[in-house]
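As a next step, the fold was encoded as tokens, giving this record:
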Amino acid sequence: MAESAYKEMWEKLNLDIDAHEGLLEVLGKFYGDIYLSQQGRLQGAEYLDFVLSEVHGLRIKELQDAKAQGRKIIGSFCVFVPEELTLAADAVHVGLCSGADAGTEMAETMVPRNTCALIKSFVGFKLAKICPFTESCDVVVGETTCDGKKKAYEAFAEHVNMYIMEVPQQKNACDHDLLRAEMKRYMEELEKLTGKTIGVDDIKKGIAIANGKRKAIQRLNALRKADPAPISGRDALLINQISFYDDPVRFTAKINELCDEIEARIEKGEGVAPKGTPRLLLAGCPMAVPNWKLPYIVEGSGAVVVGEESCIGSRNIRDLVDEDATAKATTVDELLDLLTDRYMKIDCACFTPNDERLDNIADMAEELGAQGVIHYALLFCQPYSHEAFKVDKTLQAKGVPMLAIETDYGMEDVEQLKTRIEAFVETLES
């Protein structure tokens, strides 16, 4: 994936060139083994392959070009950070979560050893100087969805320009008011950073772009109801991952083109696996690039993944900002209210209680024809590990079997996971 033409750009970003090129070489092989080896892929998947091949190349050059034009780059780790407002400020919004072990020893000088892999990964990528996205950011926005993240951000702030957004932990009226205040505070921070006053038309434009992106993925998810499955879970996950860092307008257009191809495939009765292949829903923690381990194992075990209930999945795109109310809004305050309404619907495991997530998983499994659910939690991720028990109880009442898995980014447990998942799939076929 490395391109010598980009070496000067990476050097200006102060990357460790040798370590970075070593990372790209490993990821290139990993991607080839997991993605390019698939049979019956959609032609439109060439877009996904191109984006991944240029993820640290062309996309980073686009960010540098944007900075040269005076635009600011905003990095975030959570779907609670409102991209609509970033876009309203004519800034670029990119996701920074990392899905691979890198710089782990360095990360463990800043965070405890028994910290979840996602936190250690984004810290390790920074300290090892191998993430051009982080190095391109003018500000990194953290949030209070997770105690581990909150404390890690304190240390991370010694290395990047941090801004912390408060996220409520319940969904009472006062919590809605808190998030509404945080929306306004974030907007004011963007205005200060960019020197731009954000107006009604600016926010409406940001809402239109973000809603358009969500609609494209909603369309994709609806098409995944078909049997045979028209797209692999691996490619669908990749689409969700790419949505966090590719240009949103380009992404939306490309995914709608891909959906056109999927519709044609469905009409012909074609798919990536035979009709009747066991269908599974993945639920739980987000899977950031290049965390492709679990769907790869699942789809190598005789099943197909038909949905992802996670922040890098349905939780990020399920709800839109009300478009009719947006069109009628005449003030910034009205639009901030609408944004708050939309973001309060997110069913993150940080909330207590969080019964709506239980209902959403059960409904999603039914809509997609999933015969079983694999609940995925990163090791040391307490919120999702706790919720696995409640999810299992809810699904049992619906007659849907669930397998709970806790793992990290390492490959040491692949054979063990494969054995457990194969056994689970066999129960669905019996």
User: Anything to note?
Assistant: The chain is about 55% helix and 10% strand.
